[in-house]
Task: structure prediction
Amino acid sequence: MMLDQLAATMPRSSHGYDEYKFREEFLPPDLVIVIADMESFINRINPEEQYSRDLGFLSTPCIPRSRLCMWIREYGVAGIARVYMHRPYLLNEDFVIYFAYTGRVDILQFLHDKGMYLSTFAMVAAAARGHLDVVMFLCDVSYWHELARVRASYRGHVDIVEYLETYEYMHNLSNEFTCVLQPI
Result:
């Protein structure tokens, strides 16, 4: 009986967070519209059609409503921390890609520190927009993708292309030395 009541109070799309206990008291009034906008953004995305990784697909990722974008710009990490405290399942890959696309390395750092999966496609979105600091952060935490260099070169971001070529060279070099140093 108790489990049925608990299941009825959980959101329909919990994105794998069912086993965690959330703070289920009422949302603060200033977060109600923000949470509603975030839920509508997540629910309207079709992953199969949006995240095609073909080279011909060079359009921008889906952008949330403008009032949500303004809220994120204004409140930044503090606002995202409040959303995380009440509804962590909302901060999924769609928002990670949006944060990388807009160059919000501070929010990506916060999410990474919380143990959330970032995304290799976030690297591609950041490289295409020319956000070197985001690209460097994502490389540091091992979310590198070879398509990022292609998209950065297509958009003319030479600094990102140079950084990614150096990173790829060092990454490949370290893998070769790791193979040599393995015990026989």
The first helix runs from residue 2 to 9. The mean pLDDT is 79. DSSP finds ten helices and no strands in the chain. The CA atoms of residues 113 and 149 lie 26 Å apart.
